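Supplementary Text 2. Reproducibility record for the structural model of the 244-residue chain.

All settings were left at their defaults, and a single model was retained for analysis rather than an ensemble. We include the record here because the model underlies the residue-level annotations in Supplementary Table 4.
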Amino acid sequence: MRIRLIAAVAALLLAITGTVLIAGYVTGADERAQADASPVDVYVVDQLIPVATPAEVLGEYLRVQVLPSAAVAEGAVTDLATVAGMITTVQLLPGEQLLTSRLANPEDLITPGKIRVPEGMQEVTISLAADAMVGGQVAAGDTVGVFVTKTNDAQQPSTNLVFNKVLVTTVQGAPAVVTTETGATDDSATPATPDGALMITFALTAADAERIIFAVQNASIWLSLQTDDDNEDGTKIVTEADLY
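Retained model, structure tokens:
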């Protein structure tokens, strides 16, 4: 009888312990999910912001939008005081989050929209379509990956990430012309992407400038927008055999 009583008590204790552990796990999972979805007040562009707009007047062009933390872009501005004294380095379009990478101190710029070239480097300009440079959203101060696609003597194409963290010093290109139903130019409309090719200028060492010029003349180039936290491990020369 005593053994049965001890067994029953032990079973009860195990059941209680299991219930507590499960409740703790569920509570922890809920807290983790809430942390991922915790709301953050982010500044979003409400109307087109011209290049070289001072941070002190940006409030006129912005709205505050509450987003889950997982949807907040890296470098999103949540307090305009943190960018005081800066100016925009590129035209900002409605709907995009205000990023610190889109602003700079005036003394760091040669002209609005242009970044100083690091010592020992030189500038090289190439022409690319908007879809080959992240929809035309690459701006001065960004760093990009340069993918080169070429065809060998056997007419077999291959693609490889050839350059990493290349500094963009300036981007030039006319915006698309938007017209109304009557055919007149609509100056109030904002195009989603530029129309035609853009001129993008990189800061490169002399050796890398040689390579990128060769790629422009003998291959095709595609850009990716990179950040300091990007991981390029696992890249390789990709051929048709790697697609299937």
